[in-house]
Amino acid sequence: MSATRFTYLGPEGTFTEAALRTLPEAATRELVPMVSVPAALDAVRNGEAAAALVPIENSVEGGVTATLDELASGEPLMIYREVLLPIAFALLVRPGTRLSEIKTVTGHPVAQPQVRNWLRTHLPEAVWESAASNADGARLVQEGRFDAAFAGEFAAATYGLEALVTEIHDAENAETRFVLVGRPARPAAPTGADKTSVVLWLGDDHPGALLELLQEFAVRGVNLMLIQSRPTGAGIGNYCFAVDAEGHISDRRVGEALMGLKRICPQVRFLGSYPRAGVVVEDVLPLRRGTSDQAFTAASDWLARAQDGRA
Questions:
Q1: 3-state SS, residue 43
Q2: Which of 100, 130, 179, 244 could form an S-S bond across to 225 if both were Cys, CB 3.0 to 4.6 Å?
Q3: Containing H/E element for 122?
Q4: In the beta sheet, which residues pair with residue 20?
Q5: How many CB atoms lie within 10 A of CB 237?
Q6: CA–CA separation, 108 vs 99, rounded Å?
Q7: Structural contact between residues 147 and 103, judged by C-beta atoms closer than 8 angstroms
Q8: Can you tell me whether residue 290 is helix, strand or coil?
Q9: Rg of the chain taking only CA atoms, in angstroms
Q10: 238 near 266, Cβ under 8 Å?
Q11: Buried b (16+ CB within 10 A) or exposed e, 51-78
Q12: How many helices (H) and strands (E) does the chain have?
C-alpha cells in the first residue's frame, strides 16, 4: 500500500482538493486527482493510496449519492475524519467573454441547485449540462466546449480562465462535507465530540420497520444527525439507510444501540467513529439523564446484583 498517497475527486481545482489541502497531513502526501468518487475509493481498496477524500453531504442538496452508494457496497472502507468547506461559486469563462455571450454553462450536478436562482435571474436562456466535477467543467470551458462553468474561483488560474462573477450562491452559508476514507482499522480514541456513521438494511418491509431502527437510537439517548435512504438495487421498495449519529462506538449508549441494530437488521455496515468537524467538547450538549457511560455501568451492576440475589 502507498502510505504517501491520498486520492481525491479531481481533476485539479475541485472543491474536494481545496478541502483536502486544509488537512495538515496533506502537506506530506502525494495528492492524486481521480476521475470519479468510485475511482478515488477503489484506489484505497486496491492499495494504490492510503486514503481518499470525497464529498458526502451538501447543506443545500443533501447527501452525495455516489459516495453513499460506494461506502454501502463493495469491499468495506472506513471514515477517519471529516472536513467542512464553505461553498461559493465563481462563473469561470475564457478571457474576454461577456455575460451576454454565454449560451451554455456547466458544473457538477450538485452545483446546479446552489446556483439555480442566480442562473434564472442572470442567464435565463443559458443551457446547463452537467460535468463530472466543477473543475472538469472548467477544463471543458478551456477546451471551448462550453461558454462558462460554475467552479471555485481558485480553479481559474489552473485552467487559464477568468472569474467573470464571484461569490455566487443561492443559499447563504452553504457548506459541503467531505470525508477522509481509508481501509478498516481500529477507530481513533473518542474526543468527546464525535460522530458515528453506519449503513443499515431492513430485514423485511412491514409497518413500523424504520421506526424499530430509530428506536434503538432513541431509547439510548443517541441523537441522529443524518438519515438517508438509498435503493439496494434488489428491486423497487428495497432500501438501506445511511445514518450519522452523535457519539463514538466506544460510548456505551452508541455501542449498545449498534448491538441492538445488529440483532434486528440482516446487515449493519460500520463506517467509522471520528471527530466532528468544527465542534469542540464545550459545544456538545449535555447527555440526557440515564445515557452516560456511568449510567449504563450502574444499570449493568444492578442487574448483576439482582441476578445474584443482592439487588
A1: helix
A2: 244
A3: helix 112-122
A4: none
A5: 9
A6: 20
A7: yes
A8: coil
A9: 22
A10: no
A11: bbbbbbbbebbebbbbbbbbbbeeeebb
A12: 9, 15
178 neighbors 82 (Cβ within 8 angstroms): yes
Q: Cell match 450538549: residue?
A: 285
Give me the DSSP letters along 136-193.
HHHHHHHTTS-SEEEE-TTHHHHTT-EEEEEEE-SSTT-EEEEEEEES--PPPPP-SS
Each residue's pLDDT expressed in tens, for the chain with a length of 311 residues: 567 899 999 889 999 999 999 999 999 999 999 999 999 999 999 999 999 999 999 888 888 889 999 999 989 999 999 999 999 999 999 999 999 999 999 998 888 988 999 999 999 999 999 998 899 999 999 999 999 999 999 999 999 999 999 999 888 888 999 999 999 999 999 999 999 999 999 877 788 888 999 999 999 999 999 999 998 877 777 889 999 999 999 999 999 999 999 999 999 999 999 999 989 898 888 998 999 999 999 999 999 999 999 87
For residue 47, give the 3-state DSSP assignment: coil
This prediction has a pTM of 0.88
Are the beta carbons of 31 and 52 closer than 8 angstroms? Answer: no
Length of the chain: 311
Q: What is the DSSP letter of 223?
A: P
- Closest C-alpha among 127, 63, 83, 69 to residue 275: 83
Which residue in the block uniquely carries the three cell numbers 437488521?
A: 265
Cell numbers for 278, please give them: 468544527
